[in-house]
Design brief:
Length: 132
């Protein structure tokens, strides 16, 4: 696309980001993030910011994911979940609980219930609770 001077668009970059995150290509995620900033795609595009948070988490770069999250113009349940799942997937239970506890009161119960189901598995690797 670059050879034919086709400008990037958010949907294309989101697809490429997801592929990079799935294989842990942090260097590519960083380059794409820079392109998104260069082309002004971070200000109004919440989907792009959410995917970047998720991809930095998948690559194990949690500090950068949190920094990006903190600077998102628009945060939605996808943004919050991406960061919390990232902490959970990398066994940072204390960060999950701290983040969840600090923000649970401002979320609706339905959101909290869905998020809790994932975090419950942190304490039981087989996903079972006592009595099941």
């Amino acid at each position: 696309m670059q050879l034919e001077t086709v400008p990037p668009n958010p949907v294309m970059l989101i697809c490429v980001l997801k592929a990079c995150g799935n294989v842990g290509a942090l260097d590519k995620v960083v380059k794409i993030h820079a392109q998104m900033l260069k082309h002004g795609m971070m200000g109004s595009e919440s989907a792009a910011g959410n995917v970047l948070v998720d991809m930095y988490c998948k690559c194990g770069f949690l500090k950068k994911a949190r920094e990006l999250f903190d600077h998102l113009v628009t945060r939605d349940v996808v943004s919050w979940n991406a960061l919390m799942f990232g902490y959970a997937d990398h066994n940072h239970a204390s960060e999950v609980l701290s983040f969840f506890g600090a923000n649970a009161t401002c979320w609706g119960l339905s959101r909290c219930c869905l998020i809790y189901l994932h975090f419950e598995s942190l304490w039981n690797p087989w996903g079972h609770t006592e009595g099941n």
